[in-house]
């Protein structure tokens, strides 16, 4: 059986850490295999070497060697029982760190010191990574504080400018000025879209000193590389962080502009389904519009859009201007076109109402003498939930179509009043009346998104008389019950008031699922309210 000394020596030899034993003069008495194999190709056990003197030779030029020498001497002289330190020991192709620990002990009444070198590279790399990560967090925090400090006043000022303005032009002008007063922004413009020409034009702008403005109109669909066009077409912000890397920079911006602005962001101004335009902002530094900056600008754009919507709503209440829009649509999936194609005839729109459940009921005159075939063709359409004949003539029928949430409902949601919705020879002839340009733009975009080919034929704003037909219609609708309005509309669309009548009261009552007497009660009540409203200002109507 091995003696204690032999067992200890064998165990020391197998340890995976470098170990040496020194005498009280600092000379090496014993090393283990890890010590001897530390340097590739090294076979010397270093026994008899003065370890402390060797370390002291490098002390003048190496602070780690100086600390090691001082620590070992203090242990050998009995000033302390142990000493430890961490130090780098990098090779040409690898970074390494070690911890040296010296411990004093006695053996056979003689002072001995163990010197252990333990590799701590993995731990050190983890510490360095953690510190770098912490520093990055601190840097990001400092940057965020800087951004928040910088934009806090901007948010307040832009909000005040938007809310306090009295017109759309004033909102846009104030917002642009406030933005360029804040570093690092140097140019801002707000563009509006002309629905007829599909052009985006800078309407209001502000810039610092001699910063050049791009003053040419942009065209949707063809100028797709411009940030403003991209933002409008994609309905989300579009950013170029470095114009020096943008291939079309010379195409869109004046010569020398790259010396004054280096990044650009375009943000659409939208409220609900309505697009008011696009805010385009230029910065004097690259990479400005990062994940911290962009959300703040998006929030500002929402504030501006809300203010524009409020201005537009106020204008609608105080002016008598409406937009009249005419277009043709070629798309085989449009239900009216499908119906006209299936019957090889003309389908003419008569009007629209809603039943008690809110289902839209559209009335169309179909040029055919075969009522059953017309109903079958209409019922087969995907957008039609139910079809029935309201009136029959010798050469045509009036169909009542219960519709799902299709294009007619969507147009109504955009504030459109349908004047024409006629189909013939696979082409829809459409005429709409809308409350403002934004609603017209939104409705036209809706049609373009849904159908293959949409051609705008005319677009113009019209001044209405002091009391518009829309006002009269709105007033009447508030006075009529749903049943009264349905009875009146059905009677009108079915030519009940013509002579000879195109339909009987009994047939209209049946279409409403009420008795004949109930139908006439609703109809008479609606007629009375209509006449009262019509003659309310007539002196001869007073008792």
Give a short summary of the structure:
The protein has about 550 residues and is α+β, with helices and mostly antiparallel strands. It is built from 17 helices and 19 strands.
Describe the structure.
The longest helix is centred in the first third of the chain and has 44 residues. The protein is an alpha+beta fold. It folds into 4 domains: 102 residues, PAS domain (Beta-Lactamase), CATH 3.30.450.20; 153 residues, Beta-Lactamase (2-Layer Sandwich), CATH 3.30.450; 146 residues, no CATH class; 76 residues, Arc Repressor Mutant, subunit A. The strands form 4 sheets. A 6-stranded antiparallel β-sheet has the order 8-7-6-11-10-9, with helices on both faces. It has a 5-stranded antiparallel β-sheet with strand order 2-1-5-4-3, sandwiched between helices. Strands 17-18-12-19 form a 4-stranded antiparallel β-sheet, with helices on one face. Strand 10 and strand 11 form a beta hairpin. It has 17 helices and 19 strands.
Look at the structure and give the CATH class of the largest domain: Alpha Beta
Number of strands: 19
Unreliable sequence segments: 537-543
Average pLDDT over all residues: 82
CATH superfamily of the largest domain: GAF domain
The oligomeric status of these chains comes to single chain
- Rg from alpha-carbon coordinates: 43 Å
Strand order of the largest sheet: 8-7-6-11-10-9
Q: Biggest β-sheet: count, sense, barrel?
A: 6 strands, antiparallel
In total, the number of domains comes to 4
Number of helical segments?
A: 17
CATH topology of the largest domain, anyone?
Answer: Beta-Lactamase
Protein name: PAS domain S-box-containing protein
Domain PAS: 4-79
Keywords: Transcription, Transcription regulation
InterPro entries: BAT_GAF/HTH-assoc, GAF, GAF-like_dom_sf, HTH_bacterioopsin, PAS, PAS-like_dom_sf, PAS_4, RNA_pol_sigma_r3/r4-like
């Amino acid at each position: 059986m091995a003696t204690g000394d032999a067992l200890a020596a064998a165990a020391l030899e197998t340890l995976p850490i470098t170990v040496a034993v020194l005498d009280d003069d600092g000379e090496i008495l014993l090393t283990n295999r890890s010590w001897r194999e530390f340097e590739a190709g090294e076979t010397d056990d270093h026994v008899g070497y003065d370890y402390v003197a060797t370390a002291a030779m490098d002390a003048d030029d190496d602070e780690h060697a100086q600390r090691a020498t001082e620590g070992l001497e203090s242990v050998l002289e009995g000033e302390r029982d142990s000493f430890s330190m961490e130090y780098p020991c990098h090779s040409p192709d690898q970074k390494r760190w070690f911890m040296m620990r010296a411990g004093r002990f006695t053996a056979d009444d003689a002072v001995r010191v163990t010197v252990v070198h333990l590799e701590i590279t993995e731990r050190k790399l983890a510490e360095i990574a953690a510190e770098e990560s912490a520093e990055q967090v601190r840097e990001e925090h400092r940057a965020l504080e800087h951004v928040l400090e910088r934009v806090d006043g901007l948010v307040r000022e832009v909000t005040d400018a938007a809310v306090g303005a009295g017109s759309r032009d004033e909102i846009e002008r104030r917002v642009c000025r406030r933005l360029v007063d804040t570093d690092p922004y140097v140019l801002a413009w707000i563009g509006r879209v002309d629905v007829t020409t599909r052009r985006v034009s800078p309407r209001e702008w502000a810039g610092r000193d001699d910063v050049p403005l791009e003053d040419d109109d942009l065209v949707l669909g063809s100028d797709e590389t411009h940030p403003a066009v991209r933002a409008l077409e994609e309905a989300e912000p579009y950013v170029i962080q470095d114009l020096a890397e943008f291939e079309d920079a010379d195409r869109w911006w004046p010569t020398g502009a790259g010396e004054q602005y280096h990044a650009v962001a375009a943000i659409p101004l939208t409220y609900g389904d309505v697009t008011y335009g696009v805010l385009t902002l230029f910065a004097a530094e690259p990479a400005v519009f990062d994940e911290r900056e962009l959300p703040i600008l998006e929030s500002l754009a929402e504030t501006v859009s809300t203010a524009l919507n409020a201005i537009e709503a106020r204008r609608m209440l105080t002016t008598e201007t409406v937009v009249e829009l005419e277009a043709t649509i070629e798309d085989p999936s449009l239900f009216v076109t499908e119906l006209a194609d299936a019957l090889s005839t003309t389908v003419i729109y008569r009007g629209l109402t809603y039943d008690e459940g809110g289902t839209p009921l559209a009335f169309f005159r179909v040029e055919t003498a075969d009522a059953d075939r017309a109903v079958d063709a209409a019922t087969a359409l995907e957008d039609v939930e139910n079809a029935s004949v309201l009136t029959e003539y010798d050469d045509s029928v009036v169909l009542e179509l219960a519709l799902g949430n299709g294009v007619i409902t969507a147009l109504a949601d955009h504030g459109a009043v349908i004047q024409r919705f006629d189909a013939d020879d696979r082409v829809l002839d459409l005429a709409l009346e809308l409350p403002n340009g934004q609603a017209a733009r939104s409705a036209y975009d809706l049609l373009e998104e849904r159908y293959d080919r949409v051609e705008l034929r005319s677009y113009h704003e019209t001044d209405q008389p002091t009391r518009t037909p829309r006002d009269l219609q709105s007033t009447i609708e508030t006075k009529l019950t749903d049943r009264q309005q349905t009875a009146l509309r059905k009677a009108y669309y079915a030519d009940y008031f013509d002579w000879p009548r195109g339909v009987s009261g009994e047939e209209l009552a049946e279409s409403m699922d009420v008795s004949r007497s109930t139908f006439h009660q609703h109809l008479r009540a609606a007629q009375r309210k209509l006449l009262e409203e019509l003659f309310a200002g007539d002196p001869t109507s007073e008792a």
